[in-house]
Amino acid sequence: MKHVIVITGATGTGKTTVSTYLKTKYQIPRIITHTTRPMRLGEKDGVDYYFESDASFSKNHYLESVTYAGYQYGSSYEGLERAFEKSDLVSIVLDTKGAETYVRELKQQAFILFLTVGKSVILHERLKDRGDQLEMIQSRIKSKEYSRDLTLPEALKQMATVIQNDDWKQTQDKLAAIVTALKTPSL
Ligand SMILES: Nc1nc2c(ncn2[C@@H]2O[C@H](COP(=O)(O)OP(=O)(O)O)[C@@H](O)[C@H]2O)c(=O)[nH]1
Ligand SMILES: Nc1ncnc2c1ncn2[C@@H]1O[C@H](COP(=O)(O)OP(=O)(O)O)[C@@H](O)[C@H]1O
């Protein structure tokens, strides 16, 4: 069966780091999503996101789309199909609302991976270290979406796998077990 590893959780918990690691270590492609948020230093159009204007964003066909901290984000059916052409196991980085939609739409094909950290103050430090602008960090942390995504939503509790991503080595070991299980054909 084809699977999408849906990586979700609050800003700074390591979602992008995990999806990049899955790609380099296990050749698991990531579905690239669309956003109207400005590009961060080091990001590339078509690699990190398809960066859109409000006008171009509205022209795509979305499986789901959300507003997160004032910007629009969306994942397309075409992006999912393109990733599935490359591999039966792919990943996507979504907020928890998008993760809930993915479960409704893809059912058993969606594997939910919720990332968290022991103390949320760690997240502020990580965003500073990542080089985010102070203004962006402050508005992000004040957003209702950020607070919401610190906790695993009720609707995902039954099926989600939770990784507390404090120690990167431990996270790598947990990811290895998950990838092995998902690559093992079920009887
Ligand atoms: N629902 C949904 N969420 C998305 C999509 N693309 C990115 N996100 C989420 O939007 C939020 C903000 O992403 P971003 O601005 O890149 O900041 P990040 O939290 O540091 O990764 C994160 O929770 C992402 O997982 C999408 O297509 N749909
Ligand atoms: N286990 C970890 N320990 C320390 N720093 C981490 C860990 N995982 C990720 N990071 C760092 O935290 C920052 C935020 O990670 P990122 O993957 O961009 O988070 P997200 O995509 O969830 O916003 C990055 O600078 C990343 O290198």
Task: Summarize the SSE layout with pairings.
Elements (H helix, E strand, L loop, with lengths): L2 E7 L5 H12 L7 E2 L14 E2 L2 H4 L4 E7 L2 E6 H10 L2 E5 L2 H11 L3 E7 L4 H10 L3 H9 L1 H5 L12 E4 L3 H16 L4
Parallel strand pairs: 1-6, 1-7, 2-3, 7-8
Antiparallel strand pairs: 2-5, 4-5
Bound molecules: guanosine-5'-diphosphate and adenosine-5'-diphosphate (ADP).
The site of guanosine-5'-diphosphate has 16 residues, from helix 1, strand 4, strand 5 and helix 4.
Catalytic activity: GMP + ATP = GDP + ADP
InterPro entries: GK/Ca_channel_bsu, Guanylate_kin-like_dom, P-loop_NTPase
Pfam family, one: Guanylate_kin
Task: Supply database-style keywords.
about 190 residues, alpha/beta, Rossmann fold, 4-stranded parallel beta sheet, 4-stranded mixed beta sheet, 8 helices, about 40% helix, binds guanosine-5'-diphosphate, binds adenosine-5'-diphosphate, Guanylate_kin-like_dom, transferase, P-loop_NTPase, GK/Ca_channel_bsu
